[in-house]
Amino acid sequence: MRANLILGAGFLSRYLLSCVPQTTKSWMVNRSGFATGLRKNEELFKADILERRSLKEISSRIPDFDGYVFYFIPPSSFGVQAVISSLLPLFEVLDKGLIRGILVVSSTGVFSESNEETVNNTTCISGKTPRVERLLEIEDVWLSSPFRVTIARLGGIYGKGRIIGASLLNHDEILPGTGNEYLNLIHGYDAARALLYMKKRTFSGKTFVVTDGNPIQRKVYYNYLADKLGRKRPIFSGHERHSYKCDSQPTWKTLRINPKFGDYKIGLRDLIGR
């Protein structure tokens, strides 16, 4: 049965499914067993993919599976557990089906300690915090698996129901940094489209940076957002923080598409409507 299997069904999965024809069968898996707005060919399983016992129902159905897997599980789900031992039961289950490719969502956060001012698909990672090490470990375990894997390092994802920084403006908080640091953003719709084009062309073993391609200074973004929402412009602490700019043009060129929401203003107008 041709289908998509989405592991970690949540915010991004809704955008992904909105870009998929309704005739396509999609299985979704999350811990809560809850999702809104399911369509006719969408089925939800309650399971913790990092727990062997929790995989029974998926294991019984996977022999009928023929399609692609989208991995949306955040690094925080692993806790102190070793990544490889946590993912092995899942690999064993997936091995029973016909897996045509796996799209693994990672984060541009892997560059958080980079010495480079601008990073892209080929930038080497330098300076590893525990969070960066965990992200890279997850990527490496998937790339070393027996499956055809593509890694998508997404920037800060925003969209309907998730506007980055809006909650901070509600509480008049002093924001960390000078405001000169950069945000690298991606609208959920464009993130989903990028993943589907990676699926279509199957870039096995490749890693892509996925942002809108227009890094924006935090003070410019937050001032614009505050004005749009009718809130006070924020104050920054003044303590300098490291930042970087993502160059995602090579990604969009390779995929042969352009983001619909090419910068934060276009994206926020879509969400706020003014």
Topology:
Layout: E1 2-7, H1 11-18, E2 25-30, E3 42-46, H2 56-61, E4 66-71, H3 83-94, E5 98-107, E6 118-119, H4 130-143, E7 149-154, E8 156-158, H5 166-170, E9 182-183, E10 185-187, H6 188-201, E11 207-210, E12 216-217, H7 218-229, E13 245-246, H8 249-255, H9 264-272
Parallel strand pairs: 1-2, 1-4, 2-3, 4-5, 5-7, 6-13, 7-11, 8-10
Antiparallel strand pairs: 9-12
Helix pairs in contact: 1-6, 7-9
What distance lies between the first and last C-alpha atoms, to the nearest angstrom?
A: 44 Å
How would you name the CATH homologous superfamily? Answer: NAD(P)-binding Rossmann-like Domain
The name CATH uses for the topology is: Rossmann fold
The parts where pLDDT drops under 50 for at least 5 residues are none
State the secondary-structure class. alpha/beta
Number of domains: 1
What is the percent of helical residues? 25-40%
Radius of gyration: 19 Å
Q: What is the mean pLDDT?
A: 91
Task: Kindly describe this structure.
With 274 residues, this protein is of the alpha/beta class. The protein has one domain: Rossmann fold, CATH 3.40.50.720. It is built from 9 helices and 13 strands. α3 (83-94) links the parallel β4 and β5 (98-107). α1 packs across α6 (188-201) and α7 runs parallel beside α9. The model has no long low-confidence stretch (mean pLDDT 91).
Features:
274 residues, alpha/beta, Rossmann fold, seven-stranded parallel sheet, two-stranded parallel ribbon, 9 helices, 13 strands, 32% helix
Quick take:
The model has no long low-confidence stretch (mean pLDDT about 90). The chain has a single domain, classed as 3-Layer(aba) Sandwich (Rossmann fold), CATH 3.40.50.720.
